[in-house]
Design brief:
- The radius of gyration is 20 Å and the shape is globular.
- It folds into 2 domains: 1-121, no CATH class; 130-279.
- The N and C termini lie close together (12 Å).
- The chain has helices at 3-25, 31-59, 68-77, 79-100, 105-116, 132-161, 167-199, 212-244, 249-272.
- It contains 9 helices and no strands.
- By secondary structure, it is mainly α.
- The chain binds protoporphyrin IX containing FE.
- Residues 13, 118-119, 121-124, 139, 142-143, 146-147, 149-150, 188-189, 192-193, 195-196, 199, 217, 221, 224, 227, 262, 265, 269, 272-273 line the site of protoporphyrin IX containing FE.
């Protein structure tokens, strides 16, 4: 187990969650929201730089943290390096556009590029043959749906906790999210199964619980099921109730619970990405 590497991967996911949450699910594109988006993009640039420096140091025969020749080689001679360069450029564009442009569309576009480029950081890029692109693009959709769902939870919880938004407006936003949420869940399930088959392989499914990777993946799927239950309670019980009798308390608690489960899922994913799937 490599705690520092796992923590760094988790920070990258959480930063992407907050950036996507701000961009896609906070109703008004105010100066405050734009500033927060730019800050999350800047944090993403720092985290990506540290990730690549750490990787270069791990290959360095001088065990130097700043092994610039090794870093240059990694950035320009590996797919992961080019993906990191694309992420740095996309995050820079997000920060500049969020601070300067009123239009949200282009900022979202670059944020999506930054998130998709994470696919080259983990097992999503491990399939070499013709199916490699299918695995990578499925994993990219998995990233967008997973980080998007948790980003939405963070944005709605922020709206419920901090803003003066009456519970009716929040209920309307939550109702409007229901359709998007269903698409996220369907995409996560389909691409999650694909990821499992590409990485673990159908032959190894019966012995999944015999490996650390397998036990973590099963735990993750269990957390996913718990998130679905919380989301269903929110959608079919709490939100409709909030329209008739305006109370934020129960919705705040339910959103908070769903978000904590989501962060636990990301912590497991951060760990999974550092493990050998057969061990
Ligand atoms: C709340 C639901 C879920 C979220 C937020 C989520 C999120 C993620 C994220 C962020 C990754 C990392 C992708 C990368 O960095 O390349 C990932 C990988 C993965 N996910 Fe999910 N996922 C969810 C549900 C599922 C489900 C239901 C399955 C299985 C049916 C699944 C199976 C996988 C697998 C096998 C990987 C690859 C892990 C690795 O070896 O790196 N996920 N997931």
């Amino acid at each position: 187990m490599e705690p520092a590497g796992i923590a760094l991967r988790l920070l990258v996911y959480l930063d992407s969650v907050l950036m996507l949450g701000m961009l896609l699910f906070v109703a008004s594109w105010t100066r405050q929201v734009r500033l927060a988006t730019a800050v999350f993009a800047a944090v993403g640039i720092v985290l990506t730089t540290v990730t690549m420096l750490r990787l270069a140091a791990s290959f360095s025969d001088r065990a130097a943290f700043f092994d610039i020749p090794m870093l240059q080689m990694l950035l320009t001679e590996t797919a992961m390096g080019w993906a990191a360069i694309a992420r740095l450029a996309a995050l820079l564009a997000v920060a500049v556009l969020a601070l300067t442009s009123a239009k949200r569309f282009y900022t979202i576009l670059f944020a999506v590029i930054a998130v998709v480029s994470l696919s080259w950081n983990g097992h999503g890029a491990m399939t070499d043959d013709a199916l490699g692109w299918l695995h990578l693009s499925g994993n990219a959709l998995h990233l967008l749906a997973g980080l998007g769902w948790i980003g939405a939870l963070a944005a709605f919880l922020w709206a419920a906790a901090l803003s003066k938004e009456s519970s009716h407006d929040l209920a309307v936003s939550l109702e409007r999210f229901a359709g998007v949420g269903t698409v996220f869940v369907a995409v996560l399930l389909a691409t999650g199964i694909a990821n499992t088959l590409f990485i673990v392989g159908s032959n190894a499914l019966p012995t999944l619980l015999e490996t650390t990777y397998g036990r973590l993946l099963v735990t993750k799927i269990g957390l996913f099921a718990a998130m679905l239950a919380a989301a269903a309670a929110n959608r079919f019980w709490l939100t409709p109730r909030m329209i008739t009798s305006p109370s934020l308390g129960a919705v705040r608690t339910s959103l908070g619970a769903e978000l904590i489960l989501g962060i636990a899922v990301l912590a497991i994913v951060a760990w999974l990405g550092t493990l050998d799937p057969v061990q």
